[in-house]
Design a protein that fits this description.
The complex is a heterodimer of chains A (332) and B (404).
Chain A: H1 7-13, H2 16-19, E1 35-43, H3 48-61, E2 65-71, E3 80-88, E4 103-106, E5 128-132, H4 136-142, E6 150-154, H5 156-163, H6 170-181, H7 186-199, H8 204-220, H9 240-243, E7 269-273, H10 283-287, E8 293-295, E9 301-303, H11 313-317, E10 323-327
Chain B: E1 2-4, H1 5-15, E2 20-23, H2 30-41, E3 48-51, H3 55-67, E4 73-76, H4 78-83, H5 85-94, E5 99-104, H6 118-121, E6 129-132, H7 136-151, E7 159-164, E8 172-174, H8 180-186, H9 211-243, E9 250-253, E10 260-264, H10 269-281, E11 286-291, E12 293-295, H11 299-306, E13 311-316, H12 327-335, E14 344-349, H13 359-372, E15 381-382, H14 386-400
Parallel strand pairs in B: 2-3, 4-5, 5-7, 6-7, 10-11, 10-13, 13-14, 14-15
Antiparallel strand pairs in B: 1-8, 6-12, 9-11
Helix pairs in contact in B: 1-2, 1-7, 3-5, 7-9, 10-13, 11-12
Classes of the chains: A alpha/beta (332), B alpha/beta (404).
Amino acid sequence: MPLITNYFLALTLDFYILTQPLIVIPDKFLMILMIVRVRFHGRGGQGAKTASRILGTASFVEGMNVQDSPVYGAERRGAPVTAFTRISDSEILERGYVFDPDLLIVMDATLLASPVAKVTDGIRKKGAIFLNAQSANIIGEHYTLPSDVRIASYDLTSSAMEMLGKPIISSASAAAAARLVGLVKESSLEQAIVTELEEIGLSEEMIKKNVMLGRKIFSSLEPLELATEESEKKLRIVPLEMITSNDGLEDIIAVGNSKVAKTGSWRIFKPVVDYEKCTACTVCYAYCPESALILRQDGKPEIDYDNCKGCLICYRECPPKAINIEREVIAF
Amino acid sequence: MLMTGNMAAAWGARLGRADYIPAYPITPQTEIIETIAKWVRLGEMDAKLVQMESEHSMLTAAGAASLAGARVFTATSSQGLLYALEMLYNISGWRAPMMLINVARALAAPITLEPDHNDVLAARDTGFLQFHAETCQEVLDLILLAYRVAEDSSVLLPAIVNLDGFYLSFTREKVTLPSEQDVSTFLPDYNPPNPFRANMPVSKGATVLNGALYSYFKYHMHTSSIRALSVFEEAALQFERIFGRSYSPVEPYMMDDAEFVIVISNSFSTIAKQAVRRLRERGFPAGLLKLRMLRPFPSSLVARYLSARRGVAVFDQNISLGSGGIIYPEVVASLYHRRNRPQLLLPVIGGLGGKQITVEEMEKIFEAIKNEIGAESPDPIFLMRQEELETTKNMVRTAKEVQI
């Protein structure tokens, strides 16, 4: 590390070091170094954190420097989750949130509308967005995607349902990212899937299925050869006076404001009531943890799809099995 | 290996051959104890792990076991550290050189999980030696170094190693694991003075009821803490010979001809280093001084590195409400009697509760140092980006009025 002045040498030279550089900084240190920043946006339970780790391990196997990390708060299935992988051929002088991703992996397109997830914020010019969707065009018609970026898509969830029987897309998303970045061989990806899924205690059979899924996604996409550019950023640090207004109490005085956060987009499966079979026993109403079931005049439930998170407890508890589930694809 | 900061801390306990680990869970520290518990269960680590009923009991058990001669390791965060705080003063007074890992998490209220340093800095007056880590590798290495210094017969004080929640605790990066053999060469078994033994009665932590006696022992603890600096430097020389990584109580980065310098500790140092590198590319003479050792405070080194610079900013990721940053006055005190002290010492508060810091904000600090030189009394900078304030105000508004 030529940049760290040897302290013990400095001691003997004392003040001399302040005017005379001891070590000449080689030019290569001032060159722009290769670094790829991938930001995963998913929902709790989809496997965003594991995806970032699989991509990290696969790149590490390839001899790259790697840093991966998740951001989460109070963990909940369905809530927006963000995870990052930084890949570089040299020291990574970055840490924490990736503000300016080269590649975004959007594991659930409904997150594009989330004011909390801020999915496309900061993406670099000529960067890329991968959408877990059947068609990027349809997504583009319904959500605003930034210009000057490349878009790729593949329906990972359908592949996962078919091959794993579950809508968990950690391996699939990592495979997509690894292929699009183009720095990882298929064999390294496989090794990483095995390492990371063993770490979280998956069965051998499930790991095998994930490897197959990873292979399928990897071979279905092509590297993007990303060469991104820094986007212009405006930075304004606000003075303290602007913060110290009379809004300083953290009291929440608005009653029922959780309705403002429409959690209906958290679902992957939705419960549907079969009113023929329903006996109006109200068991579902008692069990719904989100109060997203309202009782109609006839005592039968009506589901508030704006706020139902798709936990499916009603489906499991319904005595006459009058609640069915449907896979929810963004339908336009 | 790729590993998180929490995993690196667990490896510090394992490679450091900790005998006894009293534990109590709290986010974001829990993974450390989970990992050690797994190793102990699988027989990969020869240690006794005990789940206690609170952090206060956990630290009491830790200190007592250390006096019996065990090498003790434990970990906590935030409120847990504060709940145990009373015992920290006792343990240092007992001269029990145990290891406490703090995974930084901002203090309630408001409640959060992400880090700042008001938790660990609350322990600054306790007599615990205190080290702050920037990388996962540093977490492991500082644990080994801190054990060695703490157990030195001329120091005999407990130690805290701090790593930031999320930014290190859950972040994986490359960590080189030293061999067990090399670690035992560097860190031999602990040889305690007058340990509790059935056949050798000894009283520890005696009542003095006498101001002069009390002062005598406190002065002795103080000078022992000060001695830890040179003991650390000596240990670091051997550490470098064995492991090839060099550590000093402060780390200068691009300081050789730096005119404008930021003083910082912990994981945000990485982002500040990137700012320094980017500014250097534009020909701006920026530099960085990272504080790795906070107790004892390395005043002479701080003064040596900062004298004759034009301007210095002190980045405090903490706030002593009603005063300002906690580290700032310590840096000011280190420099006051230097004839060639910098023209400006700019206080900066940032990253409270894990507030994200962009490289541009770090660059802005350097710009501010340059602009403020010559100011009578520079205004402190409280970092908050415009868009962050707007989002915050929206959330505050939602808490006051329903908008459906």
